[in-house]
Amino acid sequence: MKAWQKIFSLLVLVLLLAGLAGCGSSASQDKGSGTQTKPATSGTSTPSRPKYSVALEATFAPFEFRDMKTGEFTGFDIDLIKAIGQVAGFDVEIKEMGFDGIITALQTNNVDLAISGISIDDERKKAVDFSLPYYQSGLVVAVKADNNTLKGFDDLKGKKIAVQIGTTSAKEAKKIPGAKVTELDKVPDLFLELKNGGVDAVVNDLPVTAYYIQQGNKDIKIVGDVRSAEYYGIAIPKGKPEVLQKINEGLKTLKANGQYAAIYKKWFGQEPPAFLPGEPPQQKQ
Fold first, then answer.
1. If the chain, 285 residues long, is cut into consecutive pieces of 10 residues, what is the mean pLDDT of each piece?
2. Res 198: pLDDT
3. Quick one: CA dihedral 109, 113, 117, 121, positive or negative?
4. What span, in angstroms and rounded, lies between the C-alpha atoms of 175 and 213?
5. Which Gene3D superfamilies does the protein's record reference (predicted)?
6. Which CATH code, of 3.40.50.2000, 3.20.20.80, 3.40.50.2300, 3.40.190.10, is assigned to 51-134+233-268?
7. 134: number of Cβ within 10 Å
8. pLDDT given at position 88
9. What is the spatial distance between Cα 215 and Cα 30, in angstroms, rounded to a whole number?
10. Where are the alpha helices (DSSP H) in 52-196?
């Protein structure tokens, strides 16, 4: 082999070895770091949506309960808070708990907010903040269908009454002279106690009692007038103005774009009252 050919072959070999060494170094670095080189991009990345933990007690149909077929949480409150999250920019993580523990969970920041048919009252407002009202409710008396002696709140003096613990129903029942009030954890237990003869009546929220009867429980009936008309609100820990603002703006948006009305009609079969969240109902002429 000629001298110039030897020199040329040697140069090719050196270049080849240098190329292999470079490839080996690059592969080693990629594997060690666990990352791959990506082309540079301009602009800033979009931050991920926050996830808010939402407390509820899931035996308060039609506001929140478990679907018997799927086991998933469903109801008016569930649809509403998810819709608020969609327009306000946050995801929802449901946390089920006893109703009497919800306010404490908010005060200790174990949850970000709560929607569980919670009536806005002065005592609760000392412990948590409330959104604009999203539902108007009231309390009613339920008795066995064959009971023709109890006709409303005025007939409950000295009677045995079942209520859900920690609710405005419990507060109202305890005002009745001589009443023996039994506080239970879950709404279905109230009606079971009534059916079994353990109590004379149940005091509970009108829409929940009406929904229970509509599900085929014709052995129960509502008697008398609605008492203590009240609003439901979404509860937020104090000192969280940014969360409160998101909830309120979300409610206003849903009211304006018709989604609130659609959700309301889905669960209650009628148009919602003609008032904006946070405003009293319009007086009928």
1. 45 44 37 34 55 97 95 97 97 96 97 97 96 93 97 97 96 96 96 97 95 94 90 96 96 94 93 60 37
2. 97
3. positive
4. 26
5. Periplasmic binding protein-like II (3.40.190.10)
6. 3.40.190.10
7. 25
8. 96
9. 62
10. 76-88, 102-107, 122-125, 168-173, 187-195
